[in-house]
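Summary for the funding panel

The consortium committed to producing paired sequence-structure records for every protein in the target list. Below we show the first two records in order, beginning with the earlier of the two.
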Amino acid sequence: MIVESGANGDKEKKAAGYHGGGVDSVISVEDVNRQAKAMADTGLTKEHIAEMAKNDPYVVIDELRAGYGKMEILHGLNLQVARGQSLCLIGPNGAGKSTILHSIFGFTRIFSGSIWIGDGGDKKDVTSLNSSQKLKSAGIAYILQDKSVFPAMTVEENLWMGGYLLDSPTVAKERADKVFDKYPRLAQRRSKKAGVLSGGERRLLEISRALVMEPEVLLVDEPSIGLEPRFIDMVFEILDDLQNTEGKTIIMVEQNAKKGLEFADIGYVLVSGELAIAGPGDELLDNPEIGRLFLGG
């Protein structure tokens, strides 16, 4: 976005940075890719990735090559997250961030590599499971970007839809009632059509619908997209509670890179389908080069 400002009528062109802040010139995606590759951590090893996951990962991606059709997007990707940890994926457009979530949930073609879920020695290879199997038997839920609610259905009916894989509608209704107990804001609107909810309320409904299956892993795609600042804070407070009170493991892609890294225990920088940099979220926030490329200065 170009804005014009300046004293005495002088016009000074500036461009918004990578989702926040301001910079003096526009940086193309190609330039971001090139500069991010140049600062990539050549010493980044599986051992370092494991250390960030406390050497006890709950989610493991090992040398994953994945994509869509014949196109490979991820090139030998490694990822580890411990139970109850949060990981934020950042990087330029086309880096493969959402493809990681899609691969974990079963939306991509896996060319090679593996995906594992579980504690200690009780890990399960979920690489070849489809999305329904991953949700029901592996406890992996995918919270889509905005506009995934059913607007003509009530809030309560949307929650029931979240339990479509449960053994009976009765169980789904019982789980929905538990969600209403946790989130009174939704309970007050249980009979309202989802289409009349505010943006923040819709996002709360999207998150809550995923909780009906009582997952252990939440894949969260762009939780702040399209929201006003006050609702963004609300959504991250909800995610913080799910992680730190209920022990959910959260892997997210967040276009507001600063907000995502402030929230997450671990941050990964993706470039061209490969892991370039990994570290604690606050450490990446303090990295001036990451700030320049991804945080708007």
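The next record, for a separate protein in the list, is shown here:
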Amino acid sequence: MIRVSHPSGILIGEIKLPSSKSISNRMLLLQKLYEPELKLDNLSVANDTQLLEKILEADDHTIYVQDAGTAFRFLTAYCSVTPGEWTVQGTNRLNERPINQLVDALKVLGADIEYLAEEGKAPLRIRGKQLQAENTLIDLTHVKSSQFISALLLIAPKVRGEFNLKVNTKMSSYSYVLLTIACLRRMGYAVHVKGQYISVSKQQKFDGEYFLIEPDWTSFFYWLSMAHIANEVDLFFPGLRLDNMHKERNILYDVGNSAMQFEEINGGLRLVKKSKGQIDVKPILNFTQFPDSAMTFAMLLPAIGCAHATLKGLESLKFKECDREEAITSHLLKMNVRIKKADNLWAINAEYFSMKSDTLFESFDDHRMAMCAAPLSLVEPIRIENESVVNKSYPHFWGDLKSVGFEIEYL
């Protein structure tokens, strides 16, 4: 457990954000499948990515993915097209998360996959083989997970036959399908997108041996939250640019501050705030495409005086590393903030917002639930339980906080 505080509320320094875990994981799989000599620079040091890299290097046919959901889904597809017999499983929490929609889609392509325990869930036994599309159209509009679609796209060049995937473009986190498409294109594959239909060419025109992975925008939003609460800010984020591949940058201005300025300079983004400024919040904050940042904003809004806010697109939060719907409700209650849920909308009532010194925020064994609480230490000192969970995506998070004046006491 740690106690986090900041004596001055002034944040000045340079923050090297972790590189994108999402891009790293996709490029690692593409490298393994299609370009083993490709050099990946600035690969994420997050536990999920390091684990996936070790699994792919080891080539061990008994695979334990711990709690890495992305690795689990991508490796299920990878093993399906890679000769040999594989067993894939994770922690008890991960094994509880349904995988049947991905397995069913792979079976349409001829995959040999068997459930070893409960139907529709890990552990899985997979016998890798050459897959074949028997039809020119594979209807996946019922599939709810963008990672399932991404897993299929990553192996598409390995599947015989020309085919289109028909997907639901309004699914939660569809932006990550677009990120997968961008990664495939960077690997030299033509990807054709027309409305709901996606097809990937079998021919590759890759003429590079180097790929630089950009910083992680989800991690940046913790710092944006701190900047909103802080008294003064002058922070520089190397490599972060408004034209990065990550579409999550699109929600940068959903919560505005008249005193906050963004400047692209020296290959990165500089964030400056000299006074408190006037806060402006969109009537409805839509996190359908970026649910991982929803908790950060939900914690921020009461702290900057927003008495009422409406959030949407949070249906997937119950099925993350923890039940994030339950976890964020618990976090907010500690600040006397209530949530009312109806018609896929969350109405936040922060009229009676109050922060007591040394409020304890549980991590729920979830990296994002620990980090989304950290900016509140600019309001009052707080305590955070099981601080090491940040290793999953941002291992040097607490060190970065120390570098700009946060005081962290290990209890």
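Regarding this second record: The chain has two domains: 2-18+215-410, 21-211. The radius of gyration is 22 Å.
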